[in-house]
Amino acid sequence: MKNKSKFRPNPELKLMDQVREVLRYHHYAYRTEQTYCDWIVRYIRFFGAKYHPCDMGKKEIEAFLSHLATDCKVSANTQRQALNAIVFLYRQVLDQPVDELIEHIKARKNRRPQVVLSQSEVQQVLARMTGTHLLMAQLLYGGGLRWMECIRLRVQDLDFERDLIYVRDGKGGKDRTTTFPASIKNGLQTHVDRIGQLHEQDLAKGYGSVYLPNALDIKYPNAEKEFAWQYVFPSKRLSTDPRSGKIRRHHVLESGLQKAVKVAVNRAGIHKRVGCHTFRHSFATHLLENGVNIRVVQELMGHADVKTTEIYTHVMAKNIDAVTSPLDVL
């Protein structure tokens, strides 16, 4: 039975335009919108675009998911992402819930220990980074921020007086506070002063607005040009917002930080699979090694369940340092 109270897309629009309309109604991030649309298009094209999704269902969805797992050999997370996009199409756009009926072939998910850097290795990597990318990496490690949480920081999220960093709308839509590393306070203040000058230049040229979430630009018409709402790490160039068409200064591209971390790791001669998220893993692990209560670490990390935080106890150095290899006692 169809839900009469849910949002209905405009039936006169093309299917993918309906999908975008519903995604934007529910305030999905633009990156999520792109990802979901890509998966839905792949799902439709998998059957040669012969059928409309309304004429397909459980059998076709399972076939597509099986194809991803067995032929494309995608990871469990990638397959789950595709499933979420297709379920969204049927549940939110076509109003045909099918997820409870699907018996898809899951790609096997093996839980591996998180890759963690030692404190010495963190120092080596940071020593080989400079400028804005260094500041960003220091925030990832010093505050346990996720990669995109750092990139999306706004000026008002930095509380220099109380030494706190506010993470807004993090994973799962949750807000939290985390530690503000004292060692980068002066450098970050200098950086904020510099982007303040950049913002003044944008305003003088007739620009200076920034994207605001959850329709705040309608509720507070002048907020988009306030410095407090500007990104801490803004792009070097103005760009056109793909949704509104406005010319704005967005945050930096995430690929820049990724590349900078990779280069620094290679220069440090560290042969581990290190990425931006490794700093967050190292933050949690080192706190636990230093005796910080796991519940405090859970709060700083923004984990809903302490079991998620417990995964870092498996890579703590003190857990294995006291163990002697049987080879050494022969």
Automatic annotation (TrEMBL):
The protein, known as: Integron integrase
Subunit text: Forms a cyclic heterotetrameric complex composed of two molecules of XerC and two molecules of XerD.
InterPro entries for this protein: CB, DNA_brk_join_enz, Integrase-like_cat_sf, Integrase_catalytic, Integrase_integron-type, Integrase_recombinase_N, Integrase_SAM-like_N, Tyrosine_recombinase_XerCD
Domain Tyr recombinase span(s) in chain numbering: 111-325
Species annotation: Syntrophotalea carbinolica (strain DSM 2380 / NBRC 103641 / GraBd1)
Localization, UniProt: Cytoplasm
Chief subcellular location: cytoplasm
Recorded GO CC terms: cytoplasm
Gene3D superfamilies named among the record's database cross-references: 1.10.150.130, Intergrase catalytic core
Entry similarity comment: Belongs to the 'phage' integrase family.
Residue intervals of the Core-binding (CB) domain: 13-94
Coiled coil: none
An annotated GO BP: DNA recombination
Protein task: Site-specific tyrosine recombinase, which acts by catalyzing the cutting and rejoining of the recombining DNA molecules. The XerC-XerD complex is essential to convert dimers of the bacterial chromosome into monomers to permit their segregation at cell division. It also contributes to the segregational stability of plasmids.
Any GO MF annotation of the entry: DNA binding
Keywords attached to this entry: Cytoplasm, DNA integration, DNA recombination, DNA-binding
Any Pfam family: Phage_int_SAM_4
